[in-house]
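just leaving the lab so this will be short. what follows is a protein written twice so to speak, once as letters and once as structure tokens for the fold. can you read through it and tell me how you think this chain folds. thanks a lot i owe you, the record is right below.

___
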Amino acid sequence: MALSRGTSAFTLKMAAIAGMSCNHVANVFGDVMAPAATMILFTLGGLTFPIMAFLLCEGYRHTSSIRRYATRLALFAVAAEVPWFLLWGPSLNVLFTLLIGLGLLWARDHLRGRGAYGLVIVAGIAASWLCDWAIAGPLMIVFFHRVREQPRGVLKVMAAFGAVFGIPQLISVWGAGLGAAGGLPPAIQWGALGYYTLGFALATFLMTTYNGQRGPSLKWFFYAYYPAHLLVLWLVAQFV
């Protein structure tokens, strides 16, 4: 049996999980880790949300029931909110961001009037202010969906978001190096720059090599991992 070339959805999900875990470890324990480790973990975190957004668009295209898809996201978003709140306070976790993005995709394809769709977009963007990735999250999802048929669509979206976030971060790091900016430790600032540059670049490579194949099915594992790893991080943080 010949192996499929390229990157399967399973591989993308594993990369997103790995990047997410690295990013959250750096966020929770970055102040007690070696600076080099903090920078590396934050950089790998750049894999996470772009791949999540990309796979949500793929899931939307291929799901047999948008209602069941949304229900799964909502249930695990609620389950993850308790450890998320314990770790980072009153905001909404990334599964709510994905849920809003899913709603915007559905609205784009099913609402007839532009006015109605415009109202949904405004409402979704407003709600996303409370979520991880804020307004950028749903926008990235919508843009990925819009360029899905374009040969270099993913590359264009990632280049745009990389510039929007990476350039200000580069200016911040440069200013801190010149003594013009304070605040975050250098390792975290450099890690954030790596997140939007090297991390985004690696995510872009993986997405542009996507072969459309599903790969091994571990659907419930991927859903359950999110709240489970947040809870484990919070428990470990109580003893560090």
User: Anything to note?
Assistant: The mean pLDDT is 92. The two ends are 49 Å apart (CA to CA). The first helix runs from residue 9 to 29.
